[in-house]
């Protein structure tokens, strides 16, 4: 029997984005099924087909793969029909691979068709394989008619068919043709056609949580029946059922948490891969209700009341049909339906809430629900809150007007919608005779007991309490003004105002003290100052207001005040900003870098107009920190050189200390040697030895100071020990090797100390100056002289012997004779050479006027051995002469040659040959 299978997986189920678009995930063709509603969804994760690898020259665009397993051999064909059969833009192609190949190694297709119906001029867009065709491949484009020859297949062979849609949008169907058969599809056997589905009550596991445990395998034997080689799996989603993924591991005990749940079953032949699917529903009957907690007032004032539990019946039953409600004191009794209570029930423990369990049961089913709620006695207490006021009405009788309602917010607490009544006595409370105007009640005794009744208007419950009202007076003591030193040097300080607490309390330690920045704030108890308090205006006195009040009675208070101020610190005056450091030389006869200093030298300047000052001096910060001052600052001998001295001023009247000041005392060595010059001489004797006058450095070493003496030594040790002094005229000892001379500078005015410096004497060898001159001439202004010399950077160059340059090149020169100087940079040797830059006139005029009568190269007379030859335009030699000649007069063998151009050859003494031409104009 042939079946039709509506295959909508790719349309309806989110399995894997490219599920059947890859060969490994191909749809397995089973039974006699034809397929309808198929959709080609993309190229998949793997592109198995490309234009270059098949005879039909196309590739995957939107594809679906089929795995065809042959049961009985024969002929295999099919007809593929697009749903949009009238839309010829819709084009389907296919390729068939096999037999018995793997997805990873399909090779070339044995059948394929990529004919485009529009381009081929067809009036249909179906395609496939049939008996009448003889070609095995066709396409692309206009090639073919959409059909190729079907294939002969053998038992148990496997083929892969891929269908692709390169153009248009449409689902498609496949109808199989031919004599070959496919493997049968497993089926779910239900011989008696029983309704499928399972129902289970909540609470089957003792927990009422709208969850139940089901045995899903209850139909398994019936479903399988007589079939063999089948596997039955259970799944929680349709996707998993279709793909066979994520089967349940324990279907015998599946926990369900929804009133209605669908279970998905898949029966698979593991040999052929063919499968069938089935579903059924799991039902957990919804039996639930709600119950309000019941609260009663403590009317009996003993915490015991009788409760009518039936007030919750309507809410518990709700919309449940055929239901009954019973009540229990424990969950176990409710589960077992034993020991029911009520419907009138008296609580057992005063003032403690109890849980009541309602059992909601459907009379026509075995399912029930348990609904807990609480019963409780509503009670509350009012704390006594006395009111104490100052007797400030002018009559010292202890009686005054009270606002009895001031504590209502505190009495209410978290209880909303309350009301209060006040009573002047206990009998008034019993007789419900409240005070008419509790906001303005004049007391009748001091103290007096008053009663309050607070009612919760939502519940009607109330409570009563008594409290006392009374009066008192407050008398503050006298606070002291507070002055602080300006230690921060900004006019701002943190004041501990609380030092005045005990003075203001004046023995009344029960009074509270608070501080304010204004009298108004103090009266209104607004904006109290935080302690410690920081003054607001630098160097400006502030008045602080003190409020003294009875504990817990902010209406009984008194106000007083005091002043806070900032005291300026002593300062180190230095009007001319002089340097405070002290220095002197070590002239006490002991060369130990120490001497007595008068540390008080600047005290008069420091003091200025200040009074009541005491100075202290410290040899170190450690001494300052422990208060170890220098005993005799007028004659203090330094202990290090240099040494920092720390000093501080104390004002004996204000008690304020200045910031710490420091200065340096230093034994200076007045002997500071200047920087001498290195001495050198040229090797005029050619032996590397010369006489040097060392005293030429005296003035530099003395650094311009008088009373200085310079002595020269051959070594540092000699200079330090004052041994082996050198004569003023000294000859170096080693030829061509620099010698270090050590100079010792001392004072002749009594200050101890010396300084040593050094310089070098050396004899410079006369260098070899090997060079060549390279010239560029025969221009009017752009001639040049270049000096080619090795180590050119060791020399300097000049054209006048006075102004030298480091560059061995001179450019932009006019023709002429130049003196070129090359001098070693130490000045020991100079070479000089005359260099001639030539040029020639472009024409001459031998016309007898005495002007420009001859032609000759400019400045060639400095090169007399140079030869000039003149030629006419035909190359004939018409004249030749030497550099010391006056030149050519335009004659040849006594005849005047005509005006025209002539050529010359100049053969210079240095070997250069210069050619050119000029004009003769008569």
UniProtKB/TrEMBL annotation:
The protein's UniProt keywords, in alphabetical order, are: Signal
Stretch forming the signal peptide: 1-19
Pfam families noted in UniProt? CHU_C
> InterPro entries recorded for this chain?
T9SS_type_B (IPR026341)
Q: What domain of life does the native source organism fall in?
A: Bacteria
* Protein name from the UniProt record: T9SS type B sorting domain-containing protein
């Amino acid at each position: 029997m042939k079946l039709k299978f509506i295959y909508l997986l790719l349309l309806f189920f989110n399995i894997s984005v490219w599920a059947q678009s890859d060969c490994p995930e191909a749809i397995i063709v089973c039974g006699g099924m034809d397929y309808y509603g198929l959709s080609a969804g993309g190229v998949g994760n793997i592109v198995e087909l490309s234009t270059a690898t098949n005879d039909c020259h196309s590739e995957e665009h939107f594809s679906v793969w089929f795995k065809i397993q042959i049961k009985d051999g024969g002929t295999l064909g099919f007809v593929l029909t697009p749903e949009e059969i009238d839309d010829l833009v819709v084009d389907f192609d296919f390729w068939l691979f096999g037999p018995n190949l793997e997805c990873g190694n399909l090779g070339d297709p044995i059948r394929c068709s990529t004919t485009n119906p529009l381009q081929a001029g067809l009036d249909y867009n179906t395609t496939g394989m049939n008996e009448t065709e003889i070609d095995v491949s066709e396409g692309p484009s206009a090639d073919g008619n959409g059909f190729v020859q079907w294939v002969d297949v053998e038992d148990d062979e496997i083929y892969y068919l891929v269908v692709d849609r390169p153009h248009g949008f449409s689902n498609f169907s496949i109808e199989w043709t031919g004599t070959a058969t496919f493997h049968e599809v497993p089926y779910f056997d239900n011989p008696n056609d029983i309704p499928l589905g399972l129902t289970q009550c909540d609470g089957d596991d003792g927990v009422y949580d709208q969850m139940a445990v089901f045995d899903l395998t209850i139909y398994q034997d019936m479903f399988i029946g007589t079939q063999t080689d089948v596997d039955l799996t259970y799944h929680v989603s349709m996707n998993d059922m279709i793909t066979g993924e994520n089967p349940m591991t324990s279907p015998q005990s599946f926990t369900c948490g929804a009133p209605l749940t669908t279970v998905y079953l898949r029966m698979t032949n593991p040999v052929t891969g063919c499968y069938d699917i089935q579903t059924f529903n799991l039902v957990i009957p919804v039996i639930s209700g709600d119950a309000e907690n019941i609260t009663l007032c403590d009317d009996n004032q003993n915490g015991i009341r009788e409760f009518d539990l039936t007030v919750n019946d309507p809410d518990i039953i709700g919309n449940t049909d055929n239901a009954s409600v019973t009540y229990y004191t424990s969950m176990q009794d409710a589960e077992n339906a034993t020991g029911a209570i009520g419907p009138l029930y008296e609580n057992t423990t005063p003032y403690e809430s109890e849980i009541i369990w309602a059992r909601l049961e459907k009379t026509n089913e075995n399912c029930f629900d348990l609904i807990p709620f609480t019963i409780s006695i509503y009670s509350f207490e009012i704390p006594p809150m006395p009111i104490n006021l100052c007797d400030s009405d002018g009559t010292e009788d202890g009686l005054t007007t009270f606002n009895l309602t001031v504590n209502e917010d505190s009495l209410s607490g978290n209880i909303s919608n309350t009301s209060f009544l006040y009573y002047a006595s206990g009998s008034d409370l019993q007789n419900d005779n409240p005070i008419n105007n509790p906001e303005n009640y004049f007391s009748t005794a001091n103290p007096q007991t008053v009663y309050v009744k607070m009612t919760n208007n939502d519940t009607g419950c109330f409570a009563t309490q008594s409290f006392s009202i009374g009066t008192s007076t407050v008398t503050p003591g006298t606070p002291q003004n507070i002055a602080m030193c300006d230690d921060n040097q900004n006019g701002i300080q943190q004041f501990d105002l609380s030092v005045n607490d005990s003075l203001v309390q004046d023995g009344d330690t029960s009074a509270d003290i608070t501080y304010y920045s204004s009298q108004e704030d103090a009266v209104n108890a607004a904006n109290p100052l935080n302690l410690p308090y920081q003054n607001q205006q630098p160097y400006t006195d502030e008045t602080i207001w003190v409020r003294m009040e009875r504990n817990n009675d902010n209406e009984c208070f008194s106000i007083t005040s005091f002043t806070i101020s900032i005291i300026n610190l002593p300062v180190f005056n230095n009007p001319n900003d002089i340097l405070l450091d002290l220095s002197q030389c070590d002239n006490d006869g002991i060369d130990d870098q120490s001497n007595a200093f008068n540390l008080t030298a600047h005290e008069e300047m420091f003091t200025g107009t200040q009074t009541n000052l005491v100075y202290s001096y410290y040899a170190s910060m450690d001494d300052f920190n422990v208060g170890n001052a220098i005993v005799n600052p007028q004659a203090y001998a330094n202990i290090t050189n240099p040494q920092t001295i720390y000093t501080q001023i104390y004002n004996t009247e204000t008690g304020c200390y200045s910031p710490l000041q420091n200065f340096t005392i230093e034994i200076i060595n007045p002997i500071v040697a200047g920087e001498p010059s290195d001495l050198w001489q040229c090797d005029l004797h050619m032996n590397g030895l010369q006489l040097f006058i060392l005293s030429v450095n005296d003035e530099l070493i003395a650094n311009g100071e008088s009373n200085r003496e310079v002595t020269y030594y051959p070594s540092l040790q000699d200079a330090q020990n004052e041994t082996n002094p050198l004569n003023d005229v000294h000859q170096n000892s080693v030829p061509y090797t620099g010698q270090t001379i050590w100079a010792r500078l001392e004072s002749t005015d009594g200050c101890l100390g010396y300084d040593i410096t050094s310089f070098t004497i050396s004899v410079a060898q006369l260098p070899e100056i090997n060079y060549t001159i390279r010239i560029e001439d025969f221009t009017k202004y752009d001639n040049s002289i270049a000096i080619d010399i090795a180590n050119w950077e060791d020399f300097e160059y000049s054209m006048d012997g006075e102004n030298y340059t480091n560059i061995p090149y001179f450019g932009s020169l006019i023709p002429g004779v130049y003196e070129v100087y090359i001098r070693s940079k130490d000045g020991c040797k100079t070479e000089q050479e005359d260099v001639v830059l030539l040029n020639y006139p472009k024409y001459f005029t031998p016309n007898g006027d005495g002007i420009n009568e001859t032609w000759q190269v400019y400045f060639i007379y400095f090169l007399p051995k140079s030869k000039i030859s003149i030629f006419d335009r035909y190359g004939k030699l018409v004249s030749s002469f030497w550099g010391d000649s006056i030149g050519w007069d335009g004659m040849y063998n006594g005849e005047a040659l005509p005006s025209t151009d002539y050529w010359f050859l100049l053969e210079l003494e240095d070997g250069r040959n210069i050619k050119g031409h000029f004009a003769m104009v008569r």
